[in-house]
Amino acid sequence: MSLASGTPAASDGSQARTLQASGGPARVSGSPFLHAGVTGTARERIPTIIVDTHDELARLVAGRISTLMRERQAAGRKIVLGLATGSTPIGVYRELIRMHREEGLDFAHVVSFNLDEYYPMPATSIHSYHRFMWENLFSHVNIDPANVHIPDGALARADVESACAAYEEAIAAAGGIDFQLLGIGKTGHIGFNEPGSGESSRTRLVHLDSITRRDAAADFFGEENVPREAITMGIATILGAREIAILATGEHKAGVVRRAVEGEIDRAVAATFLQRHANTTFYVDDAAAADLTRVATPWLVDEVVWAEALTVRAVTWLAARSKKAILKLTQHDYAENGLTSLMAQHGSPGAVNGLVFNILGAKIRGKSKLPRALKTICFSPHPDDDVISMGGILRKFVENGNDMTVAYMTSGNIAVFDHDVRRYMDFLERTGAEELHASGEGVRALADTVHSFLARKQPGEVDIREVQDIKRIIREAEAVSGIEVMGLSKANARFLNLPFYQTGKVRKDPIGPADVAIVADLLRELQPELIFVAGDLSDPHGTHRMCKEAIDLALEEVYPGNTKRPEVWLYRGAWQEWPITEATVLVPLSQEELTIKIQAIFKHQSQKDSAPFPGQDEREFWQRVEQRNKSTATILDELGLAEYFAMEAYVIV
Question: 281 — phi, psi (to 5°)?
């Protein structure tokens, strides 16, 4: 399903559709919610297409690129592509590679210019955009290497200015960029045009914003390792392209997407300059579109169909806006906030107030209303997502006598600091030295290998197998310790170690048949009646999304057609929380239960105090959990429902 604002039929032949609002904004592929769509509103200043999933977005954009490539080839002309790096374009590149292999898409007539490169940055570095492009696109297609242009991050500083001028001249000599692919940073930057970049700027060396460097810290295994400068095309260079596609996925991009699409043009948000481009299209998934007015509050934009889900959202929004409990909303409140049609449909404020109050109240389930004696699997993408995101309900399920298995899908080994490895090796060496362990010589040999590697290791370098194994074991031991707080034991833990994760790098392989087979085998073995799955798709590295993809594919394989499937409960918590309007189930936690949940999180010592990959939220995970769980309860209290200490939220699909 696609929605377009002021956008014609999609270039790959599919029709970009526009719907009236009839439900909440879907953030999970396959969810029953519908979108809110309008065409030509004054609020959206860049035509925007919303798609259900990351994969659909990739297919749509790759389809547009392939159409242009074939048109130019048929005309006997080259096509000039402006390309970007990052996690979002990877899907586009994979689809283009598939088209090349399966449909004969020809890259022989393609000329490419990349947006940017870190400085200083040798092309051979695992962090270089030069290497990224060859690994993720160029080496898989028949492009002429002479037609590939990427800023050189290894130049002497004295040569950078002239090289930037030469880059601009090369673009002009190629006839200008026909199609420019962009991502968007959290500051609204495009390329590395940070806040303050001017509309007339051209390719140049720039200083990176602190937020940009923090956002890149995961790839470099620490912000201190992120370069402070980069070479980037300028705003004017980008705006010179004949067609521009800008992509955004994930809830963490929702705010900046709205700012770029609906806000005023501002040098502090470089993406807003795209509003002045005559042929720019914004492609976003459901999550990234969540803050757009037509999705978040469609009743402010156009006439809507008042289905139940949208009614709940609107009344909850009105209560928060009016700072009143739901049952205290008046006819005046509805009239002053554009919701007269909703009130009229129900006949009176009291009727619609009561309806929404009861719907929200019915979502609350204490331990007595939760399942009992069910075979249950909690799929945890990382070794701590279970206790971080659903520690409260996990304990309640144990107390209710459910047969619980916690399946840890990846090792999480890249999130262990090297100093933790040294600490554990020191412990083993001391044990061997005191001859308390029969394999003391083996331990010393292992220690020599590990210490030798760590002494010469460069930031971001892939760990040797021995170090990866130690980090995996550290996290496995912590995971067991965490679920023991919940009343489980190591017998309840399964460590799946899905192959897609085992690259040793932040960037992972695509989900493959081997990953799906492992999950499918577990489903066949345990025959669960209920499964918990991470729906927290704002994980900055994509592991949550990829794990969910593996589970979805395994469910299709194990339970084909009309075969009865286990009930699926989606949890969040590590990065986001379900809004109460989207949640199916709200689970209250007492102060004692929240304390126990935090204690379980504390067992993950390698992630304590300073996690290697905290994302933009610098707080520890237990602090995020405490704030989010308490905030959910506070929201219900302010709406006039029952008062609780804390609360977790789940969506049943």
Answer: -130, 135
Q: What is the pLDDT of residue 35?
A: 34
pLDDT the model gives residue 436: 44
The Cα–Cα gap between 10 and 26 comes to: 21
Q: pLDDT tens digits, residue range 149-159?
A: 999 999 999 99
The 8-class DSSP code of residue 252 comes to: G
Q: What is the C-alpha to C-alpha distance for residues 369 and 396, in angstroms, rounded to an integer?
A: 10
User: 117, 168, 194, 577: which one is catalytic?
Assistant: 194
Question: Which tops the pLDDT comparison, 89 or 223?
Answer: 89
How many CA within 13 A on the CB side of residue 186?
A: 17
pLDDT of res. 24: 34
Structure tokens at 417: 């600091």
Give 286's strand partners.
none
DSSP letter for 104, please: -
Q: Is 117 a catalytic residue?
A: no
Over 50: is that where the pLDDT of 39 sits? no
Range list of β-strands (E), 403-510 = 403-408, 493-495
Compute the distance between CA of residue 536 and CA of residue 572 in angstroms, rounded to an integer: 5
**pLDDT classification of 616: cutoffs 50, 70, 90:** low
Say if CB 250 and CB 538 are below 8 A apart: yes
471: nearest Cα among 410, 514, 518 = 410
Cα torsion angle, 294, 298, 302, 304, sign: positive
- In angstroms, the CA 257 to CA 250 distance is 10
Neighbours of 195 (CB within 10 A): 16
